[in-house]
Design a protein that fits this description.
This protein has 8 helices and 15 strands. The chain is α+β, with helices and mostly antiparallel strands. The protein binds zinc ion (ZN).
Length: 286
């Protein structure tokens, strides 16, 4: 993280030290927070568009535009209008990994029905031990997390021995997510440099988010990617940010306003998020 040196008044310094003691937060954190507030930049804040409940019910039309999303973050995951592929937001650029295996950079305005973004400012930076599965990724991240009750963002970079992803196929509005997810093409990549963009959300957020880990992958050359199903790699760089502010932006479409969102979506969501047992996936494997 960059370091700044500056001069402040003695009285300000006194307040800063007192507040730091009182709140149990570092001076760096307090200064970053104050600067972010004064420049109106979100700090350790997740910005989420719509809810997983709405997505499970088939509400896939635009809630906000991709450009609007970038006002709230430079890092994150999501999907596009009509579930047309997987969204990866990395270093302030939005990428679309589509079901034909192609990845494109979003330069025009594109709508998103669901996304979660933040300005990535890691609190932790370290090199992982050997990772042999997505389960190992979760274990490494679990070890870094200090709570089950706030949100976390993870960025994992390096050379992956193996990455298995899927990308949603554009689907008509109203088709339930579980049904749409049953025909999604999957992709296999070997010896590939890239980045995992991930969010960990607490169990209590399962009513509107994916509880636990949710990772999307993007290759270093930005030509491959998708929703992560499996991976392995050695000496990966793992960065983590703790997120304790949350902004939820709800759609104003008639579909959303009239939808019955009281149903328990956990089973449908788990099905949509995971690998499906099927011989020779309907989609191509690369
Ligand atoms: Zn995903």
């Amino acid at each position: 993280m960059p370091k700044i040196t500056c001069h402040i008044s003695q009285s300000l310094q006194k307040i800063l030290e007192e507040q730091s003691k009182l709140r149990g937060e570092s001076i760096s954190h307090l200064v970053s927070m104050a600067l972010a507030q004064s420049f109106e930049v979100p700090h350790h804040t997740l910005f989420q568009v719509s809810t997983t409940g709405a997505l499970v019910q088939g509400i896939y039309e635009r809630a906000v535009s991709s450009k609007y999303l970038l006002n709230y973050g430079d890092f994150g995951i999501g999907t596009f209008e009509n579930l047309d592929g997987e969204m990866v937001v990395l270093d302030g650029v939005i990428y679309q990994a589509r079901s034909d295996g192609k990845v494109s950079k979003i330069t025009e305005e594109v709508g998103t029905p669901f996304a979660i973004v933040l300005f990535f400012e890691p609190d932790l930076d370290e090199i992982s031990e050997e990772i042999n599965s997505l389960g190992d990724v979760r274990k490494v991240c679990d070890r870094l997390r200090d709570s089950d009750n706030i949100f976390y963002a993870f960025r994992i970079d390096g050379k992956f021995d193996h990455v298995h992803t899927r990308a949603m196929k554009a689907t008509a509005e109203g088709v339930p997510l579980a049904q749409a997810a049953s025909v999604q093409p999957e992709f296999e990549f070997k010896n590939i440099n890239g980045t995992l963009v991930g969010i960990w959300a607490p169990q209590f957020s399962s009513a509107f988010n994916v509880a636990g880990y949710h990772f999307h992958f993007l290759s270093e050359d930005r030509t491959k990617g998708g929703h992560l199903l499996e991976c392995s790699g050695k000496h990966l760089r793992v960065r983590m940010e703790r997120m304790n502010d949350f902004h939820l932006s709800l759609p104003e479409s008639q579909e959303f306003l009239q939808a019955d969102l009281t149903k328990d979506i956990s089973k449908d969501l788990a099905y949509a998020e995971q690998i499906h047992d099927k011989e020779n996936a309907d989609g191509e494997r690369k």
